[in-house]
Every structure is written in structure tokens, then in C-alpha cells.
């Protein structure tokens, strides 16, 4: 164990406050000042793929929640304690319902971010507000105890871990570019086709995911594919998987490349409802079972899963799905939404063209995602060892050099 002194987070920062709290739906604009929410904060970085905007006048009203480079943003609800650093060169930035911490001048913000991500989860469980949903408030954040070395050592540790995070960021850009190019190529081909209008239900099977109990959520030979596996861009996310040891029908198991569609939505703007994503198998090869919040959509004729993913990602299907949504707090997709969707039926040549154009790009995105998973596991293995002093920076640098 290292002999670094212990400090409370409140002693290491010039301010710890909370972002804007209140209804925001009516204040979003198509462009303007980026406005961070909990879903934008990932472990060690900010995800701008689902960013929303507010106008500059409202941004200037919200002085307390304005962000500057080097500020730490920490999730309060959902995945409480998850932290990221506001990067340099970001411009105007504001936020909602996040803990904001501004480190003192003798603190290295990236190091503090790593330290928070390493220690906050256990602390959050012990200082949770609310029995139903974990909630990390400003008072709890100020009391978070961290071990802190010299500024020189902080920078050295951040440099080692940052090299891994930089590679993860590169892979994420590769994957995002591949997915974007796949969608553009696929949709351009689909839109250029003029054919007889058909009903989707004639060309697919739809299987509901399973209903499960909490007792089934134990380590076994399978993972449960949940609603959190589909993000707002329609990308499959492994972090939404849950351990699963219960039973399932054969048709409720999903394999690599299968299409799943979100049947419920908790977001205010219905950003997930009706989203389709391609399943990506796990590195450990365990079975995957779809939960009740998802529908498994499989082609029964000459269509392919590649074609279905593009078709279900079009503006036409998104608008169609929106018209079939019902509910208030929790939105649900009517069971008729998928089978009643109408579209120009392609010929086999078009299906082959779309499949051949998009599948290699899907494979590129998956490979980048897998590599990032391996690197993030290495980072998460090194992090506690560096923080505890069990691993020296010099030894960690050699491990990272071999990995990259």
C-alpha cells in the first residue's frame, strides 16, 4: 500500500456544485451550446454522439452549470460516480443534473478523474440517497476520500493510463466512422430503389424477449441483452449486458449480427424507442438472451439482417415507430409497429448490394470495439494497482508499450 496522504474531494477542489436541475424538454434547440446529460458521461471521457443543445441566452442564465476545460463532471443518477474531464478547446458548454468539480491548481484533473472512477463506486453504494435509484449528491462528493501523490506522480500515472484511453478514443472514432459510412451507403442504395410497396410483417419474424426475475440475474453461462444495450444512435453496447442464469426459449437467444429493436423507452425525447441495433457477441463467447424490452427481428425471405438494420434506421421507420408509441413516463412500442411498416420491397440484387456494401464496415466497427474492450480491461486492471502503489509507473509503462 502506498503512503500517499488522504484528502476529501472537497479539499482538492475550488468548487463542487451541481448542474441545472429541472425540466429541459422545451429548452432544447437544433444547434447552439452543447448541453451535457448523464448519458454523455462515460468512464473517463465525454460521449458527444447523443448531445443536445440550448441557445446562448439560456446558457448565460445558467451560470452555475457552465463548464470550463479541466472541470470534472460526475454522474449523479444512473451510473453514479462515473467521472470525466472537460477537454480543452471545447468552447461553450453547459450541463444538467451532474456534479461539477473544479480541481485546485496543484491537482492534475485527469488523475483526479481516474481516482474518482476507481473509488467512487464503493463510496456511492455506502452514501446512496434513495432506495429505488442510487443518487450521488454534492455533499457525498465533497466527502469522497482519495489518496493523492505529488503532482509529478499524478501526471506520470495519468500519462500511462491516458495512452490507453487515447487508443480507445481512436478506436471509437474508427467504429463511429464505419457505422456512419455503412448507414450512408445503405440508405442511399435503398432510397434509389423504386419497387412494389410491401408490409414488413410478410418478410420477418418477430420474437419477444423474455420476462425474468431478479433471481435469474446471477453469473451463469449467458448474458441478458437489456434495453441499455441499445444507445441513442442505434449502436450495440456491451455495458448494458447483465449476468443471466435463468431459462429461455431457443428463439429468445440471439447471435452475432442479429437485429434487436427497443420496445420501451425512458428518455424524455423518445430517442431509444424503435431503435434497431445489430448484436455483437462477447469476447468470452457466452450465450446472449434478449430481455422483454427488446424484440428480435429476423428475416424469413431473401432479406438479410444487414438490410434490415439499414431499413429500420431510416427516417421513415423512425417516424412510423413514433406514431405507434404510447405511454407517459415509460413509452412502449405498439406490437403492430414492426409488422405494419410499409416499404419498397427490394429485389435480390439490391439486397446483395446493400449487404456487400455494409457488412465489411460492420466488421470493422466490431473489430475496433473488441480491441477497445481489451484495452479498457487492461486500463481497469492497471488503475487500482497504480492507485494502491502495488505497481510502479515504470513497470506500467512497459506493459502499456507491449499492449499498444
TrEMBL record:
Biological process annotations from GO: DNA restriction-modification system
UniProt KW keywords: DNA-binding, Restriction system
Gene3D superfamilies per record: DNA methylase specificity domains
Pfam families: Methylase_S
Domain Type I restriction modification DNA specificity as annotated: residue spans: 2-175
InterPro entries reported for this sequence: Restrct_endonuc_typeI_TRD (IPR000055), Restrct_endonuc_typeI_TRD_sf (IPR044946), Type-I_RS_S_subunit (IPR052021)
Classification via PANTHER family: TYPE I RESTRICTION ENZYME MJAVIII SPECIFICITY SUBUNIT (PTHR30408:SF12), TYPE-1 RESTRICTION ENZYME ECOKI SPECIFICITY PROTEIN (PTHR30408)
Name listed for the protein in its UniProt record: Type I restriction modification DNA specificity domain-containing protein
Amino acid at each position: 500500500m502506498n503512503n500517499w496522504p488522504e484528502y476529501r474531494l472537497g479539499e482538492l477542489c475550488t468548487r463542487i456544485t451541481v448542474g441545472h436541475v429541472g425540466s429541459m424538454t422545451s429548452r432544447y434547440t437544433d444547434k447552439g451550446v452543447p448541453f451535457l446529460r448523464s448519458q454523455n458521461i462515460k468512464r473517463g471521457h465525454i460521449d458527444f454522439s447523443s448531445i443536445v443543445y440550448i441557445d446562448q441566452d439560456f446558457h448565460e442564465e445558467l451560470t452555475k452549470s457552465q463548464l470550463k476545460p479541466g472541470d470534472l463532471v460526475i454522474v449523479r443518477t444512473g451510473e453514479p460516480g462515473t467521472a470525466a474531464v472537460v477537454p480543452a478547446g471545447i468552447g461553450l458548454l453547459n450541463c444538467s443534473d451532474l456534479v461539477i468539480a473544479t480541481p485546485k491548481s496543484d491537482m492534475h484533473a485527469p488523475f483526479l478523474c481516474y481516482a474518482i472512477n476507481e473509488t467512487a463506486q464503493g463510496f456511492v453504494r455506502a452514501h446512496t440517497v434513495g432506495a429505488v435509484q442510487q443518487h450521488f449528491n454534492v455533499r457525498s462528493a465533497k466527502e469522497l476520500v482519495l489518496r493523492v501523490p505529488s503532482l509529478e506522480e499524478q501526471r506520470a500515472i495519468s500519462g500511462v493510463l491516458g495512452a490507453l484511453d487515447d487508443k480507445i478514443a481512436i478506436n471509437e472514432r474508427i467504429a463511429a466512422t464505419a457505422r456512419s459510412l455503412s448507414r450512408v451507403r445503405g440508405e442511399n442504395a435503398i432510397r434509389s430503389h423504386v419497387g412494389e410497396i410491401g408490409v414488413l410483417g410478410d418478410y420477418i419474424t418477430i420474437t419477444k424477449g423474455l420476462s425474468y426475475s431478479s433471481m435469474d440475474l446471477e453469473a451463469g453461462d449467458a448474458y441478458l441483452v437489456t434495453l441499455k444495450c441499445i444507445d441513442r444512435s442505434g449502436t450495440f453496447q456491451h455495458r448494458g449486458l447483465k449476468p443471466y442464469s435463468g431459462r429461455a426459449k431457443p428463439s429468445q437467444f440471439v447471435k452475432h449480427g442479429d437485429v434487436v429493436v427497443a420496445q420501451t423507452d425512458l428518455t424524455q425525447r423518445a430517442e431509444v424507442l424503435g431503435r434497431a441495433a445489430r448484436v455483437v457477441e462477447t469476447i468470452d463467447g457466452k450465450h446472449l438472451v434478449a430481455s422483454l424490452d427488446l424484440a428480435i427481428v429476423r428475416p424469413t425471405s431473401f432479406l438479410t439482417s444487414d438490410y434490415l438494420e439499414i431499413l429500420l434506421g431510416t427516417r421513415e421507420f423512425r417516424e412510423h415507430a413514433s406514431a405507434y408509441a404510447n405511454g407517459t413516463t415509460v413509452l412502449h412500442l405498439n406490437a403492430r409497429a414492426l409488422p405494419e411498416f410499409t416499404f419498397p420491397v427490394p429485389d435480390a440484387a439490391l439486397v446483395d448490394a446493400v449487404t456487400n456494401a455494409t457488412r465489411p464496415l460492420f466488421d470493422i466497427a466490431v473489430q475496433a470495439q473488441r480491441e477497445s474492450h481489451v484495452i479498457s480491461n487492461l486500463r481497469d486492471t492497471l488503475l487500482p494497482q497504480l492507485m494502491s502503489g502495488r505497481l510502479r509507473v515504470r513497470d506500467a509503462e512497459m506493459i502499456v508499450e507491449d499492449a499498444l
